[in-house]
């Protein structure tokens, strides 16, 4: 089944590396890659003529940049399974992404975070946290800035949960797809901070994950006497895991990892790519 992948670009080398990463991630899968450039020109009411000229210049720069990106992709001629479409929008980035998701039924958004880590906490006011907060109905894969190549072996995705909320199959579909594409294992991590046994509801939610993940390699793991952030960090580092998957629920487990209110107590900046799964209706 063909996948539809959205890759916002600002024409930097890191944006290009994200695109190449996506091509490798889906090298065996038929895909249409939507390459989006969003630009904004501030409106100056008293200088309408100048504004129109600035708008036309920004539009031309965006379209030329997208054309050069296509030329670079055509030069590579890597995969007959891959198709490309370009989109230029005079909009806020989050608005442009949401519009593209709604229009094209996008399966996954790939973006790059500045620096060696993936900063997803809204308290730090970066583009990634803002976009992932605003955009709905589509998962994100966020790459560290220097991440260029896929791991060649022992591919492993850590998926933390406390089992307190049920998952819908479609909410973890992107995680299953990634495991299948990469031939990766999913390590389901339960962080039992309070030392209590699982409730009946938690056990049912755990059983549901067994059903959802039946087609891929997975295993269950548990850590005690630690916090969520410390536990995730220690588990990922100790196993040298390649990816982290987080479920971004509006309320509940891990919502604070994305929240402005926890700026002082959380330093959560993973060094591996982070798959952000969204709560779906």
Please provide a written account of the structure.
- The protein is an alpha/beta fold and 281 residues long.
- It is built from seven helices and ten strands.
- The protein has helices at residues 13-25, 48-76, 93-104, 127-134, 173-182, 200-212, 228-239, and strands at residues 3-8, 31-39, 82-90, 108-113, 140-144, 156-161, 185-192, 218-224, 243-248, 274-278.
- The protein starts with a strand and ends with a strand.
- Residues 3-117 form the UspA domain.
- This is Universal stress protein family protein.
- Pfam families: Usp.
Supply database-style keywords:
281 residues; alpha/beta; Rossmann fold; 2 domains; ten-stranded mixed β-sheet; 7 helices; 24% strand; elongated
SSE order? EHEHEHEHEEHEHEHEE
Number of helices, counting only DSSP H or I runs of 4 residues or more: 7
CATH homologous superfamily identity of the largest domain: HUPs
The first-level CATH class name of the largest domain: Alpha Beta
Widest sheet: strand ordering: 3-2-1-4-5-10-9-6-7-8
Q: Could you give a short account of the major beta sheet? A: 10 strands, mixed
In CATH, the topology of the largest domain is named Rossmann fold
- What is Rg? 20 Å
Domain UspA: 3-117
Organism: Salegentibacter agarivorans
Protein name: Universal stress protein family protein
SSE map:
Elements: E1 3-8, H1 13-25, E2 31-39, H2 48-76, E3 82-90, H3 93-104, E4 108-113, H4 127-134, E5 140-144, E6 156-161, H5 173-182, E7 185-192, H6 200-212, E8 218-224, H7 228-239, E9 243-248, E10 274-278
Parallel strand pairs: 1-2, 1-4, 2-3, 4-5, 6-7, 6-9, 7-8, 9-10
Antiparallel strand pairs: 5-10
């Amino acid at each position: 089944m063909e996948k539809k992948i959205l890759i916002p670009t600002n024409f930097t080398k890191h944006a290009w590396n994200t695109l190449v990463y996506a091509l490798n991630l889906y090298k065996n899968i038929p895909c249409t890659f939507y390459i989006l450039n969003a630009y904004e020109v501030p409106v100056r009411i008293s200088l309408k003529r100048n504004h129109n000229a600035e708008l036309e210049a920004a539009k031309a720069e965006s379209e030329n940049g997208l054309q050069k990106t296509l030329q670079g992709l055509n030069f590579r001629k890597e995969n007959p399974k891959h198709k490309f479409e370009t989109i230029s929008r005079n909009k806020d980035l989050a608005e442009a992404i949401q519009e593209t998701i709604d229009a094209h039924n996008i399966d996954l958004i790939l973006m790059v975070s500045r620096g060696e880590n993936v900063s997803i906490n809204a308290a730090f006011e970066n583009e990634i946290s803002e976009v992932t907060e605003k955009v709905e109905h589509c998962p994100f894969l966020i790459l560290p800035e220097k991440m260029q190549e896929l791991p060649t072996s022992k591919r492993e995705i850590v998926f933390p949960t406390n089992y307190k909320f049920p998952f819908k199959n479609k909410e973890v579909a992107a995680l299953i797809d990634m495991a299948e594409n990469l031939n990766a294992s999913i390590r389901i991590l339960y962080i039992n901070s309070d030392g209590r046994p699982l409730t009946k509801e938690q056990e049912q939610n755990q059983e549901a994950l067994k059903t959802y993940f039946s087609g891929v390699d997975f295993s269950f793991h548990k850590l005690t006497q630690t916090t969520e952030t410390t536990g995730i960090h220690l588990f990922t580092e100790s196993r040298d895991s390649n990816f982290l998957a987080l479920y971004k629920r509006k309320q509940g487990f891990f919502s604070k990892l994305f929240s402005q209110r926890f700026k002082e107590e959380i330093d959560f900046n993973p060094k591996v790519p982070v798959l952000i799964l969204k709560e779906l209706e």
